[in-house]
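Troubleshooting entry. Yesterday's outputs looked truncated, so today I'm pasting the complete records for two proteins to confirm everything comes through intact. If either block looks cut off, that's the bug. Protein one:
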Amino acid sequence: MKKQIMAGFFIICFLNYSVSHAAEPEPPEDIAIGNFPAVVAYLNKYISYVIDDEDLAGLNIAIVNNQNLVWEKGFGYADVENEIPATVETRYQTGAVTGILTAALVMQLVDAGKISLDENIQTYIPDLNLKSHFKKTSSITVRQLLSHHAGLPLNLFKNSWSESPPSFHSLVDSKTAIHASYPPGLIYAYSNIGYSLLGIIVERVTGLSFAQAMQKYIFQPVGMSQSTIENKHSQDKLAVGYKDDKAGKRLLPRDTPAVGLVSTAKDLSRFVRRYFNKVINKNGLAETIRVQNQQVQLDIEKQVGFTWYLGGLNIKKAGPVIWRGGVTPYHRSIVAMLPQHKLGVVILSNDSRSWDEINKLAEKSLQLMLQAKTGIKTDKPDEDSERPPQKIVNHPNILKDTFASAYTGFSGYIKLTEEGDSYSASVMGWTLSLHKDTENKNWFNLEYDLLGFIPIDLSWLAGVKVRPAVVNQRRVLIVYYKQHQYLFAVQYKPDKIHQGWLSMPGEYQVSNSDALLESMKIKNGELLIKNNQLFFNYEFPVWYGLSLTLPVKTISDNEAIIPGLGTGLNESVSIKEVNGQRFIEYSGYLLKKQNKTEDFLNFDF
């Protein structure tokens, strides 16, 4: 009976969905050159459809062609509860989009001779307390801060977003030590800390506060009159942020040089137009979109400028595609441009679920604008574009005995075991099957076994391929997805657990939670020992039923790292004693051990 009720429930849900959701508007097939109104008319319908279909709170868009603003509009609500619509004057938190303005500000000071790109940052910040367990590493340069190759942690998360956050100057007070995650120049690792340090450098060479310097060098010259660096007084016309249909607290960032810009789509479109101006080479902007990591092997295909991504959006035949996205606890943003054709788009949203949609919208907008400006159609992939190239890294050694091994990466601990000509992978609580790709040598296709016996292709796994390789003397897994290749994981070889950590396994809860952690809905975690290896396991907050298992590599009796390669990995964890109690500290959070679990050793991957 229960099964019949559930079946009926799903049928009703399906019928309701089918009846109540309109079909997605079809884009115009042929757009005459110069017919920008056709693009605007379609996007108007498409965005309205997306807002309704995805039940998003609000969204603003601005599209530019050379020095002209083609279109700007607000959709949905800036404040759902009070039915305040999003208008062209609605302001949003822009997150990491802030960095493109910070980089432009730094480059003006470079041109003025106040900052040197390849200077050691401790020339400007001698009081920086930087710790490293790497031997014989070089100094961090301003250029490496700008391109996110300084080897610094993603963030010091505790109080990084709060109703009353500390200043970013707290990063250089006597009580704060910043622990390097990598040697400088090894790999791209986005860091809010790095851009906050740039903000401190700006202040010390100009004698101005960071907000004053941004006003003098960027906002006023560009005409960004509705933009501010966020503070307690910058809430005017700021859209209310939403997560899962619920209004979030109005949180302010600590790291304002990295994520503190509050702006409108129109204001940011004015900044984009500066890249289409003839004076681009005179104000340092050209350097911000030049490839900065061509010699960094572990970045694989990723190309970056100064916080800009150079490629990654799916816009074919358009020349360079340059973009930057931003994420705050409740807002999302993206700025993208085709500099060769002088086209750009800015999209801002106050709904945390909008990330995928604004990325698709940015691609769609630029594809259609390119067609309207040049006649180039980009919606059809190039011939054989689905086939991954054979040569993907400088040193693509394929060693069969290295594939079956343990790895660690963004999805945590991965265990690969050989099963004849195929492999089985345990990752995030799932079991994946890897089968040889018959058309692409050395690549493997992924399948997911539903309930252990029904092989299916999940939509997001379709087209995903994986292969082993050796890059920069490290054994890694490369993933191919949507015509791009990424470093996915690195081989993990555990060492002996240091004595101080042997008594630490058990269930843990954050004892000093804050508004950011509450917004992320992180649940309790568990420190485990399995097969003489140390792991931290917690339920992944985004997808129901998935758990993330992170290996913990101890480096002393009270220090450890979460090993891996890339943003947010290889970061420090420590044992800290407070008032006679031992805590695990990560990024400022103190994790307190709860009552002993019944049998924490009984854990399977």
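Protein two, checking that the full record survives here as well:
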Amino acid sequence: MTVQIYSYKRISSRTQKEGTGIDRQEALIKEYLAHHNRELAREFIDLGISGFRGKNARTGALREFLDLIASGAIKANDVLLVENFDRLTRMNGIDATKLVVDILSAKIIIVTLADNQIYDYRQEDHSSILFKINFVLSRANEESRIKRNRSLGAWARKHSEAKSSNKVMTKRLPYWINYNEETETLNLNSHRADEVRRIFDLLEIYGCARTANEINKTSTDKKWTLIAIRHLSRAKSVYGCLEIYKTKSENGESVDYEELENYYPPVISKERFFNLQTKLNIRSETHDKIGRESKGFRNIFKGVIFCEHCDTALHQNFTKRKGKEYMYLICAKSLVGACPAGRKIFIPYGYIVEPFLLYYKNYELEKIIRKSGDVQSLVENRNAYNAEIEDKQSTIEKIAQSIELNGGDIPKILLNRIRKIETEISQLTNKRDLADVEIAKMNIYVEVEQAISRADIDELLENEEGRIRFNMLLKESQVQIRVLKRFDDSEPFEGQDFQDEHKMSVVVINNKTKGFGLSYYFDRKHARLAGGTYYFYTKKFVGGWNNDFTLPLGSRAEFSVYDDKSQ
């Protein structure tokens, strides 16, 4: 089997990215590959992620590398190239050593390029390997600690200077503040400051969502989202206060540091800010008391349906008319004027789910969702792995008995054999565990497929558990639905073949595992799909069903031919 070579590079700050940090690591890797006439199978890079507390091993590219080892995709004898161990981690003590030892224990060979050292778990002198690793990692951790203390000291000095002489601490400024390089002072951007004042005027009357919607109707330098308005409504910087209390201490805890008033030019008065806080708190308390009745899990498309205009997931929303409740799918960005559609996007849930279920009922099941596969073959493989593991464990027990009969002396040849068998057992255990995971997944698919037949799909979706299971199946099958909302005054686009098509919205159902898509048009009265027409009010499909109406995968790009010139 060909040995694969991987590389890992990490820098912890933007300064290193702009400097020589990443270039130095890249040069060492290229030099090694050229010398050995090899190519990289894949590189893993963490940019701007510190190794001091192990974040790269929890969420970064290094985490992905470790997961690939666990899954068996990266195999024994493969090689990992790093500049130094401190690229992998700068954690202290046992945590750092364990990370490196775990990689070596999987029989991955680590090459540190800066000192041209090779670390291989199969080397007999493990104590020497551990000593080297501990020495290098301890030094790296101490260097990080010194740098961190210097950084904390620098920030403390900046805080003191800002407090005593109003010196500018950082050029990361609020949206409405400019920094004057010549005078080294902070000044209001008059247009944006007026924008912020208008927002606070609106917040006196409306909630955050309505405020975002109203302000986006005016001339602004950016589109305000609901989240942005919420953050602004609580930001003390609007009355000139610099919040410098969220500072990392030496032990990593967030500590209350200080608030520096009169640091920024104020946009509104401090009194007005806190008066508004009182109103917002009263609104929040009222909302918490009244609350909203939980609607449970209604939307079977949760997490799989998106607005094509802004790529935002559509969410369920409910409204009541004449005592009857109606469910809609909404684009949250469109509600505050931040969606390129330029209109509010409210789509009755039935306009999506009913045509989708028609496709589901008229196509074969595997056309819509991923087929479960042969669970029995996976079970047989798992059982075979177990049998082989038991056989090898029995062999080790026999060797141990033989050693006891010979006075406890372990010949080198037997020791090597035991190590080889233990390695084989470890590899088989990993394969068995992966098979167990796949079997669990397939059992879910089989269970859901058995429950979701064409005959009982409507009954299944009447209860919350059934909707959750069906939604899970859509996600696992990588089904994605994209909606391009059209409006009554939308202009025609190329390729129309029936009346008023340009006023009809477009839905594309992409199936990544099957490599094709399905599409249909809809308006308030009907949907055009598969060569026929489905009427929402009568729930009837008129025309012959045609199973050949499919699109190539990646049909999101196909929306470009439906250019809405009215936007």
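Both blocks look complete. Sanity check on protein two: DSSP finds 18 helices and 22 strands in the chain.
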